[in-house]
């Protein structure tokens, strides 16, 4: 599955000159996403969604490492910091939405309130 994820990363724009950095990012993304899955669900159970989600997470890591996570703009008066994309626009957030049918605990729960 690693080769498939690497191929998807290349299709998303990762150049061959980033291969040394990309492979560990792909492996880390696979471990991270597999840990999010419900008990009893394997990455293969997710079909093509898992490799795509892993590629998205790896590419976000690659872009972050190349850009250094720098802000696009910063204003001191009435503090304002702007970065590329937002939490909902991140590739990791998109990956979680893509894998939503197979995810276990996501840190959100509905609680009943007695009236």
- Helix tally equals 4
- State the strand order across the main sheet: 1-2
Portion of residues in helices?
Answer: 40-55%
Helix and strand content put the structural class at mainly alpha
Q: Name the average pLDDT.
A: 80
Order of helices and strands: HHHEEH
Radius of gyration: 17 Å
Largest sheet: number of strands, sense, barrel closure? 2 strands, antiparallel
Beta percentage is: 5-15%
Coarse morphology:
elongated
Low-confidence stretches: none
Distance between the termini: 50 Å
Number of strands: 2
List the keywords.
115 residues; mainly alpha; two-stranded antiparallel sheet
Structure description:
With 115 residues, the chain is mainly α. It has a two-stranded antiparallel sheet with strand order 1-2. The longest helix is centred in the middle third of the chain and has 19 residues. The radius of gyration is 17 Å and the shape is elongated. The N and C termini lie far apart (50 Å).
Itemize the secondary structure elements and their pairings.
Blueprint: H1 2-11, H2 19-36, H3 49-67, E1 73-75, E2 80-82, H4 91-98
Helix pairs in contact: 1-2, 1-3, 2-3, 3-4
Summarize the structure.
The chain is mainly alpha-helical and about 120 residues long.
């Amino acid at each position: 599955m690693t080769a498939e994820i690497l191929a998807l990363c290349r299709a998303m724009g990762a150049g061959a000159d980033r291969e040394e950095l990309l492979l560990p990012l792909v492996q880390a993304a696979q471990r991270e996403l597999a840990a999010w899955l419900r008990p009893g669900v394997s990455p293969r159970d997710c079909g093509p969604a898992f490799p795509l989600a892993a590629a998205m997470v790896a590419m976000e890591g690659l872009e972050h490492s190349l850009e250094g996570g720098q802000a696009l703009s910063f204003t001191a008066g009435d503090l304002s910091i702007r970065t590329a994309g937002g939490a909902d626009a991140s590739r990791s957030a998109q990956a979680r939405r893509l894998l939503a049918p197979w995810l276990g605990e996501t840190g959100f729960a509905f609680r009943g309130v007695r009236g």
